[in-house]
Amino acid sequence: MQKMCILAGLVILCCLFSVITDNFLTAKNIMNIALQTSICAIVSIGMTYVIGGGGIDLSVGSVAAFCGMTGALLMKAGFPIWLSVTAAVMIGGLLGILNGFVIAVMGIAPFIATLGMNSVIRGTVYVMTDGVPVTGLPKGFGKIGGGRIGGWLPYAVIIMAVIAVIMAVILKKSHFGRNIFAVGSNEQTAYLSGVKVIHTKIGMYMTCGILSAIAGIILTSRLVTAAPTAGDAYETDAIAATVIGGASLAGGSGSISGTMIGAFIMGVLRNGLNLVGLNYFWQQIAIGFVIIIAVYIDVVRGKMKK
């Protein structure tokens, strides 16, 4: 019922923009929405793992930027595209492991730990490049985020769909996925039940880091440029999409299907407001209200369960 309500909200939003704009329901614009949403959706899937386990990751945007920049610098140094991309994704996983270690082993609160890591990683990106974007990347690399099958279906959308299916199966059907929800529901009870809490926390942050790195690679590929400011505000969009999709900030719940709907609600809202001609700054205000409303709904859900 909850997912149906969220899906109904997405449909209503689409109907509203289709009435007040002329180009919203065109095939070209729908593909554009899917392409724009793909990056946010991939990051949001990783955030679902973290929030489901009772944590939060405010470093996803900087991880995306760092990994995109790393891949770009490796390609500029002459390394093959596949090796550069693989190395960037692995670095994303290592940064996630570092986040998990700081939180699970050192005992620092997730909000503070990932906020600090966000500043460290973003600062490192600027130090690496002196704040100057990296350009002149191979044309073949641009196909990852900008290529299309048959001239209409973007590769990025296919990557998003494949990741969503795989991560949904892992979250719902695997031992690791069940452990994440167990830790998010009650960490002490999970520990007494035999769940390896530290390993689970490190695993969910590693997953988030890997998916953030993939999102960063796709973004860099789309622009064929690695910008130091890439991934800015990804954390707010990812948290909003995850909470809109039904995950609780208290942990213990969440689904990939709900998160995907939440990500598309954010994507449709941004696209529709652009078509309406609303100023970017007003768009930020509108999206901010959506985030507040989503969190409030989460609070109400929590009270109703009690």
Explain this structure to me?
By secondary structure, the protein is mainly alpha-helical. The chain has a single domain (2-305), classed as ABC transporter involved in vitamin B12 uptake, BtuC. It is 76% helix and 1% strand. It has helices spanning 2-20, 27-52, 60-76, 81-104, 110-129, 142-146, 155-173, 175-185, 187-192, 197-223, 234-244, 256-276, 280-305, and strands at residues 148-149, 153-154. The protein has a two-stranded antiparallel ribbon with strand order 1-2. A hairpin with a 3-residue loop joins strand 1 (148-149) and strand 2 (153-154). Helix 2 packs parallel to helix 7 and helix 11 packs across helix 12 (256-276). The chain is globular and about 55 Å long. The chain starts with a helix and ends with a helix. The mean pLDDT is 92.
